[in-house]
User: Which sequence fits this backbone?
């Protein structure tokens, strides 16, 4: 049943590392002249981790969520303090196994939906042991992957 294996990593925020943030924006269309001006220092924790005590990093393995831009080896930032909503990408515990899927509700039924047509949709029934472990807030992957 487990279509993606998951490794859970607790963040260690001992020192905050601030990296340079360039004042000029990078054009995604046509190139523009680059400015070598640094605006300020940027701490990624301030932007990616809203609830440090409830946030975990999760490394995925598998391709069931490839069409949601989640590739094998990506690191997901998961916030356990958030409530899952319709269409949220979640880490779920299903019958004792962790999986990452999109949460859908339709006509009173609950579904875990992969983002790859090669995998089946899972209906959560009364017989299913199911828990939302956390809500995925960000995906970190290497460029070109």
Assistant:
């Amino acid at each position: 049943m487990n279509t993606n294996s998951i490794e859970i990593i607790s963040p260690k925020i001992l020192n905050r590392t601030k990296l340079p943030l360039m004042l000029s924006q990078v054009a995604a269309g046509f190139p523009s002249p680059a400015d070598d001006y640094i605006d300020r220092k940027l701490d990624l924790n301030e932007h990616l981790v809203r609830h440090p005590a409830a946030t975990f990093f999760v490394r995925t393995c598998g391709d069931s969520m490839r069409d949601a831009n989640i590739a094998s080896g990506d690191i997901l930032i998961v916030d356990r303090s958030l409530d899952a909503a319709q269409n949220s990408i979640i880490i779920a515990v299903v019958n004792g196994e962790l999986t990452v899927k999109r949460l859908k509700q339709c006509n009173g039924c609950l579904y875990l939906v992969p983002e790859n047509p090669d995998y089946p949709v899972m209906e959560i029934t009364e017989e299913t042991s199911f828990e939302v472990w956390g809500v995925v807030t960000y995906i970190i992957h290497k460029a070109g992957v």
Summary: The longest strand covers residues 130-140.
